[in-house]
Design goal:
Blueprint lengths: L1 H20 L3 H11 L1 H15 L1 H21 L4 E9 L24 H12 L2 H11 L13 H12 L11 H7 L13 H17 E7 L7 E11 L2 H59 L10 H30 L4 H9 L1 H24 L5 H96 L5 E5 L12 H26 L6 H8 L3 E6 L35 H14 L9 E6 L6 H13 L5 E5 L7 H4 L8 H6 L4 H7 L1 E3 L4 E4 L8 H5 L2 H11 L4 E5 L8 H6 L4 E7 L5 H13 L4 E9 L4 H18 L1
Parallel strand pairs: 5-12, 6-10, 6-11, 7-9, 7-10, 11-12
Antiparallel strand pairs: 1-3, 1-4, 2-3, 8-9
Length: 799
């Protein structure tokens, strides 16, 4: 006990000196923590990846292997290319300098559309159907069948390693001779039966055929008249034959199309010329007969009096319509209330003005009289009578004149209507006469115009027929093959190394992301950082996991061994004092002794959230470690539901804690039940017989008296209780001790369950010393991290 007190005091003095000599220690630590936040996150990512390293390696290896096998089974692909020249199409004959009838095609603005049209024709099914028919691909077994998958796979593997061979080169002469001559008389259209039969071969050609315009990169003008046609196939000779046939067929079909169009145009022109000549003859005969039958002498408009009279009547009719509309508007306006009186006032302005002036004088006089007299004054009444008489006269005058004005407007409106109707009747009569007289002249002009139109068309067609004859005999071909394709000797694909590399990288990224996602879903406690960030509790120690071969019964420092050899695995302290497990429990002992200020804790509760987390093992080994310092240590088995302490130390359990709590016993009798394990030096109070209600016994006053009595006899008391979340025994016991040690099984226990246990303890006011991470992997970084700093604390305490 004296040594423990000195150790605690010495550690506190050293810590206070550090704070006094380095006041900026806390600030520097915070800055360092911020600077290393990114490193901590990266380390957490690395731990998540390393935890599932074999899963990542296995999946990446499987995917990469499958892709490699697939790529190796694919045959080598060769590409043959031929180059065409497609110039601006012109219909000028090579036999003369006649102007082209297709001037639009020579326009540089419209040439891109023509060039794009040729690109579409090159890859269209019509041309490729003719190629398939020319090469007889229907009976070519090499075209639709790939080489042996075994051979291609082995060659692909060799080429992936960079040691694959190349196809035998072929000369230009041999390749050109393999291209069959296309029949010039072959039809460019096929019936539906033939098209259906050749459809699979056309689709195969379209899938592997590439048509690309050639661009010049060194000059300002990028566009050229060149087109590269490429075809890919596993057989290099067949690839060259196909692409050369495509070029030759396209050039020949272009010439056939132009010649066929010109010949068809000539036939059409001759037929149309004969038809026009017959129509002109018939039209002239009909014109002469019509003129005789209708007695048409002259069609000059200046000598036609009927038309002049019709024009005059039309002019008069328009004037009469305007006059009628004006009279109608004036009459309708006068019909509005007060409009006629207003017009009458304007017409008799002098009389009304004099009357209004007289009224003004009378009103002024009336106003003067009212200054000194009332309304009943005689002179005022006379003035009022005069004003009323003048107003009545003015009103009657306006009404009489308004009726006169309205009558005049109505009379004028009816006169305008009569005039318009008479002129319209005269106009209709004259128009009928004009139509009858000039109907024959109009028909005559129609017949004459039709004859003139046919003559103009005939002249144009005769000119076109002559030009078409010249073009037909000298049509140039603006499409030509510049470079023929030879059989390629080096494959262009498949890019096996690239595909395998991409598969490896993508699968690696996917697996790493999957590992991080699984780690995100895993809410169990794994490391010290998990305890500190999720539970906000300190970590007292980490107990490494050990295999079954290395688990042995404790052999204390005095060299005594426990009985029954390796029967029980709860005591994990090895005979070697420098073993990882023994060192871990020594570090845990140091953390416990330094967990309270001023003195070492006297009593403590060792519990867990769930069963089988190692709380009993931790309690036993902590008790043994404290006993090795020479202190008197008592361990109480308060788990009266599943007691295990007596079986670990091979002791009798007929009397124990349940006996003390269920009977009236003196302090001497209760102390007498405590037994000492000789080999380890630890005093033990077993659970005793299993009671029916353990929680009532633990929460009784007898338990407090027992605990108070035992506290006076031992320097350290360690209580092993049931799990917190399962039973209330641990919560009740936590109120009796100085603090609680919470054991967490690393990688198994959820942070939610541990957080619930923490909250249960805090709700009753219990102090939690910290957490003991049990069964921590020896490879975990936090284990070595905690060991390193705990050893530093031990060294510091020893100084």
């Amino acid at each position: 006990m004296k040594e423990q007190t000195q150790l605690v005091k010495r550690s506190s003095e050293i810590f206070e000196k550090l704070l006094e000599t380095t006041p900026s220690l806390a600030t520097d630590y915070n800055v360092s923590a911020k600077n290393s936040a990114i490193d901590i996150n990266l380390r957490s990512y690395w731990r998540a990846v390393r935890k599932r390293l074999w899963l990542i390696v296995g999946v990446v290896t499987l995917i990469t292997t499958l892709v490699a096998i697939y790529m190796m089974r694919k045959p080598d692909i060769y590409e043959a290319r031929v180059r065409l020249q497609v110039e601006v199409e012109s219909n000028k004959s090579s036999l003369g300098d006649s102007k082209s009838s297709s001037i639009v095609l020579n326009n540089p603005v419209n040439y891109p559309a023509y060039f794009n049209t040729q690109l579409k024709i090159l890859s269209g099914p019509g041309l490729l159907r003719r190629v398939a028919k020319t090469l007889d691909l229907e009976h070519n077994q090499t075209f639709m069948r790939s080489p042996s998958s075994l051979d291609s796979g082995w060659k692909g593997f060799m080429k992936t390693l960079g040691v694959g061979g190349k196809a035998a080169p072929r000369t230009q002469t041999e390749t050109v001779q393999e291209v069959p001559l296309v029949d010039p008389g072959a039809s460019t259209t096929a019936d539906l039966v033939e098209a259906t039969k050749l459809a699979p071969y056309v689709e195969e050609l379209q899938e592997n055929l590439s048509v690309d315009p050639v661009k010049e990169d060194r000059l300002t003008t990028k566009e050229t008249f060149l087109i590269d046609i490429g075809y890919q196939h596993s057989d290099p000779q067949l690839a060259a034959r196909v692409v050369n046939t495509v070029g030759e067929t396209f050039a020949l079909s272009n010439l056939e199309r132009k010649t066929q169009t010109t010949a068809g145009t000539g036939d059409f022109l001759q037929k149309r010329i004969l038809e026009l000549q017959a129509q002109i003859r018939n039209g002239e005969e009909q014109l002469m007969s019509y003129a005789k039958s209708n007695q048409i002498l002259s069609l000059d408009e200046n000598q036609n009096t009927v038309v002049e009279r019709l024009v005059g009547l039309n002019k008069q009719l328009l004037e009469a319509e305007n006059e009628r509309k004006t009279a109608e508007s004036a009459y309708k306006a006068a019909l509005e209330p007060g409009a006629a009186e207003a017009l009458a006032s304007d017409a008799n302005n002098k009389y009304i003005s004099d009357a209004e002036a007289k009224l003004i004088e009378l009103r002024q006089r009336r106003a003067q009289l009212l200054v000194d007299n009332t309304e009943e004054w005689l002179e005022v009444k006379e003035v009022n009578e005069q004003i009323e008489a003048i107003n009545k006269q003015v009103a009657e005058t306006r009404k009489r004149m308004g009726a006169v004005v309205l009558k005049n407007l109505e009379t004028r409106f009816h006169q305008a209507i009569d005039k318009e109707q008479k002129l319209r009747a005269a106009f209709d009569e004259q128009r009928g006469e004009t139509l009858v007289q000039n109907g024959a002249a109009i028909n005559y002009r129609i017949l004459q115009q039709e004859i003139n139109t046919n003559k103009s068309l005939l002249d144009g067609l005769l000119q076109r027929a002559k030009e078409n004859d010249v073009i037909l005999h000298g049509t140039p071909n603006n499409v030509s093959v510049i470079d023929y394709a030879i059989a390629p000797y080096k494959p262009i694909g498949p890019k096996r190394a690239l595909a395998i590399s991409i598969a490896f990288i993508l699968s690696l990224i996917l697996c790493v992301a999957l590992a991080l996602f699984l780690d995100y879903l895993d809410n169990s406690i794994h490391s010290i950082e998990d305890v500190e960030t999720r539970l906000h509790l300190a970590v007292l120690g980490t107990i490494p996991a050990s295999s079954g071969m290395s688990r042995r019964r404790l052999r204390p420092a005095n060299g005594l061994a426990l009985r029954n050899g390796d029967k029980h695995s709860e005591l994990l302290t090895h005979a070697d004092g420098r073993s990882p497990i023994a060192e871990a429990y020594r570090q845990l002992r140091t953390s416990i002794l330094l967990s309270t200020a001023g003195r070492a804790p006297k009593s403590m509760l060792v519990t867990s959230s769930l069963p089988s987390e190692g709380k009993t093992t931790t309690a036993v080994n902590v008790a043994i470690s404290l006993a090795q310092t020479g202190a008197s240590v008592l361990i109480i088995d308060a788990d009266m539901r599943r007691p295990r302490l007596h079986s670990i130390f091979n002791m009798d359990n007929t009397q124990g804690l349940s006996t003390c709590l269920s009977r009236e016993m003196s302090e001497a009798e209760m102390t007498g039940i405590v037994e000492q394990h000789v080999e380890s030096g630890v005093y033990m109070l077993t659970s005793g017989p299993v009671p029916p209600t353990p929680a009532e016994l633990i929460g009784s006053d007898q338990m407090r008296r027992l605990f108070s009595s035992l506290s006076n006899s031992f320097q350290h008391i360690i209580i092993d209780s049931p799990p917190i979340t399962s039973f209330t025994d641990g919560v009740l016991l936590s109120t009796l001790v100085d603090g609680v040690i919470l054991v967490v099984n690393s990688g198994k226990t959820s942070d939610v369950i541990v957080g619930r246990s923490r909250q249960l303890l805090l709700d009753v006011g219990s102090k939690i010393f910290g957490v003991v991470l049990n069964n921590v992997s020896n490879k975990a970084e936090n284990y070595y991290y905690h060991n390193y700093y705990t050893e530093e604390a031990n060294d510091l305490a020893s100084t």
